[in-house]
Amino acid sequence: MAIAKAERLMNLALCLLGTRRPLSKRELRDSIEAYVEAFGPGNGATGSDDSFNRMFERDKDDLRELGLVIETVESLDGDIGYLARRDSNRLPPITLDAEEAAALGLAAKVWQQARLAGAASGALQKLRAAGLPEDVDPYGSHGALEPRIPVHEAAFEPLMLACRDRRPVAFDYRKATAAHPEQRHVEPWALECWRGHWYLAGWDRDRGAERVFRLSRITGKVRSRGGRYTADVPDVVTVRETVASWAGEIADRSARIRLRSGAGYPLRAKATSVRELGDGWDELEIPYGHGLDAWLVEFGPDVVVLEPAELRADVVDRLRAVAKG
Length: 325
Hints:
- The protein is 40% helix and 24% strand.
- The protein has 11 helices and 11 strands.
- A hairpin with a 2-residue loop joins strand 9 and strand 10.
- Helix 1 packs across helix 4 (46-65), helix 2 (25-31) packs across helix 3 (33-39) and helix 5 packs antiparallel against helix 6.
């Protein structure tokens, strides 16, 4: 549905940009395949005319919201026509200095996923065509860096499209403390990558609150749902803060753990203090925030939580859930 609408809007925009004179609704209806398939030719029945008029007005409004300047012109005979003049829709010249070009080049190299890599490469080619100097190497000053954001989860692409189109979704989600997944109905806001894992932030309709979901815990297919969003979408900064908090990046307390010597180097990097206990164990004090229990479970028998008691209980619950399968 989203792809069909995007194609229809693109064809309408091309018609309006390509014409030298205003085109009437009937001419546009006969020129765009999607309109012909849906409503027939311009001399169709009254009902199809009404349906076409409603769709055309929505499409026209959508294009204007996207920034296309569409003029409405009335002829001497009183007929109404539409066109988008190229001089009114031309972007200003693009000028990038070396640092800006390097930042764009670095961003283009980040994506390993083929679907996004092609788009990033095409964007760089368009920048070249728009005047990016050939002697500016977008990778030159950062040649030693090889950033990657891997995407292995099947849920990534449908959720990315749902975030873009503001489309509610449903999926089966298995919490770390649960043996079986349960269905969640979510209004997706944004996808964020933290500590090598992808997270979805959105509004959980069942719980009536914002929630963060780790994509690796989504099982089965992501299914689209109809209807509009019921909750306001926060700005990007707020979403990132939410994900950071749920992913354990924001800590307001400390926890004490025992860690096997020679193990858990990511934990050691986060530790504010390390003390050798002997017998192959060390004691660490680490920042304690939401999500720390899930992270500690990943280290299995190499970690023992000393305090606080609530963190120890959460880790035990997660380990029991894993043991149950």
